[in-house]
Specification:
374 residues; mainly alpha; 3 domains; 71% helix
Length: 374
């Protein structure tokens, strides 16, 4: 008769096996985790790691009060079932159950029993308001030839970029690492971004209202005609036409990149976003060239004011869209996004299409209609 030598698994090996089994269950049994995105797995892994540590503490404590060898407990084939019920079950002495329950409740406080994200206090909203105020004051002071104006404007822009970077970083950590963006949270985030775009629509609506108010019924103070006397308008079929083609093509490229993210073709997505960022930079450079070769400026009456405010703020929104595209490219290259978790790219696409639509309206009514139909 042959006898096989019995081998015992160490404590760490048993824990590792059970931890891997749990991760396999988490991946295969998706029906129990419909409301969890793939990044929430990281938080759950940390949670169960803590449960294993509590279980080890209970074993150590049990052996200590009963003068037992801890290694012998593991070698005797004790059942290692890591569940909350087992930790607080009736088979354990009261003192051990209390230790396990207290440690577990202390850890579970950071994981609320609801699907919403209670946002921590953040300094970025008030900081963004201060940066916007600096940009406004700096821009106004620059237009009135105050020496401090350019410095305030540049500092405000740099400060705003720093705030955007920090704010994006916090949101990415909350959604990708902490797993705070559940299905309900993502639904509300989409609603919030749609309302933000509605507010942007109303922002540009004000400028269009001023344009139509001045152009449809020109005042006698500007000669009773539109464009006003002395204003040489830009040819809509030169740089403005090229910029229109660039933005329309960029809308197609960013949509192509978004489709690549949704189907898991990340190389296609990265290439589409890089192409869109290239088109955005060409648009901004062409707009800057147009400004430097204009025969009028922002001080030349109502036409100059509306033209530069409308096209200038649109260019600023193109720049913000460029920043969002750049962040999305970085997140894709670092594998921080997936087919189910890519709200950042989704919002960037929505924002970029909004920018495209605004430019089409600007091109039709300001460049073409304002030049050829009066």
């Amino acid at each position: 008769m042959f006898f096989r030598k019995r081998t015992y698994k160490t404590q760490d090996e048993i824990i590792k096996e059970q931890f891997e089994a749990f991760k396999h269950k988490l991946v295969t049994d998706g029906s129990e985790y419909d409301d969890l995105n793939d990044k929430l797995v990281i938080a759950l892994e940390r949670y169960y790691e803590r449960i294993f540590q509590i279980y080890k503490d209970v074993i150590s404590y049990y052996c200590k009060i009963n003068n037992l060898n801890e290694d012998s407990i593991w070698k005797e084939g004790q059942p290692i079932v890591i569940t909350i019920k087992h930790l607080s079950g009736p088979t354990w002495p009261i003192s051990i159950r209390l230790k396990a329950e207290l440690n577990l409740k202390k850890y579970l406080k950071q994981y609320p029993k609801h699907y919403f994200h209670i946002v921590d206090p953040s300094p970025w909203p008030i900081s963004a308001a201060i940066a916007a105020l600096l940009i406004t004051l700096g821009g106004t002071a620059t237009m009135h030839d105050y020496s401090i104006g350019p410095y305030a404007l540049i500092y405000g822009i740099i400060y705003l970029l720093f705030i955007l970077f920090s704010w994006f970083k916090d949101i990415i950590i909350e959604g990708s690492i902490e797993g705070r963006h559940t299905r309900v949270v993502k639904k509300n985030l989409r609603l919030g971004f749609k309302l933000f775009i509605v507010s942007e629509v109303m922002f540009f609506f004000g400028f269009f209202w001023a344009y139509f108010h001045s152009s449809l019924s020109p005042s006698i103070f500007i000669g009773g005609e539109w464009p006003p006397l002395g204003i040489k308008v830009l040819d809509p079929f030169e740089i403005p036409f090229i910029n229109t083609i660039i933005l329309l093509v960029s809308g197609a490229s960013i949509t192509w990149g978004h489709i690549g993210t949704r189907i898991g073709m990340y190389i296609q997505s990265i290439f589409g976003l890089i192409l869109t960022a290239f088109f955005a930079s060409i648009f901004l450079l062409a707009q800057l060239y147009e400004y430097t070769h204009c025969t009028f400026n922002i001080s030349d009456g109502i036409y100059g004011s509306i033209f530069f405010m409308l096209t200038g703020f649109h260019g600023f929104h193109v720049f913000l869209g460029f920043c969002m595209i750049f962040v999305s490219i970085l997140r894709l290259t670092t594998k921080n996004l997936s087919t189910k978790h890519h709200l950042g790219i989704e919002f960037t696409v929505w924002y970029w299409h909004f920018v495209d639509i605004v430019w089409i309206l600007v091109y039709i009514f300001v460049y073409i209609w304002g030049s050829y139909f009066f």
